[in-house]
């Protein structure tokens, strides 16, 4: 990684951040900036959450829409190196990565992009996803963010509905799916595109 990314990794261990949820019914979830040693575990988690088959398949799977891995270690490291303003956050139990999310401020710092939200498929019925999303929203809010933007493949109705229940609104905007960029998988369903969602904080 470049020097800026290296400096960010040095800050990771020195400044762990905790995000407290507002609900009294759930404990505080601590999310930290991912370290270099977390990268392999994050990649494994993302591929299991989005592309796993068989017993590890969760409801967030993209099977039937895209083939191949969701991401590789090389691609994730490249994303981190080329976007030093972004943060890959992880939720861990002891040394095991159970959830991750990517947050990235826009040019003005008011609107942040949120992506790569994933939890261990074995824990997807334990409300871990909504807790991780809430922790990420708090994390962004504490750093001056006023709104979140995200993109979801428009064919993923269940996921779009899930985000709407969390307060996200379909903006009516769409973005083309990068079908030619096979680093994130090979489309096997026709006419994929991203739908843009937003939420004010």
């Amino acid at each position: 990684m470049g020097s800026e990314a290296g400096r960010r990794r040095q800050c990771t261990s020195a400044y762990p951040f905790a995000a407290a949820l507002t609900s009294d019914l759930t404990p505080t979830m601590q999310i930290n900036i991912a370290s270099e040693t977390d990268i392999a575990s994050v990649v494994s988690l993302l591929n299991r959450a989005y592309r796993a088959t068989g017993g590890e398949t969760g409801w967030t799977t993209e099977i039937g829409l895209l083939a191949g891995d969701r991401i590789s270690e090389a691609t994730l490291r490249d994303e981190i190196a080329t976007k030093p303003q972004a943060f890959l956050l992880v939720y861990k139990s002891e040394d095991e990565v159970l959830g991750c999310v990517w947050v990235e401020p826009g040019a003005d710092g008011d609107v942040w992009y949120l992506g790569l939200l994933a939890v261990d498929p074995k824990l997807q019925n334990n409300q871990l996803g909504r807790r991780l999303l809430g922790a990420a929203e708090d994390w962004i809010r504490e750093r001056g963010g006023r709104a979140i933007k995200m993109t979801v493949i428009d064919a993923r109705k269940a996921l779009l509905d899930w985000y709407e229940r969390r307060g996200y609104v379909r903006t009516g905007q769409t973005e083309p799916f990068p079908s030619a960029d096979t680093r994130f998988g090979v489309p096997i369903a026709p006419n994929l595109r991203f739908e843009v969602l937003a939420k004010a904080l």
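Confidence is low (pLDDT under 50) at residues 1-26. The longest strand covers residues 96-105.
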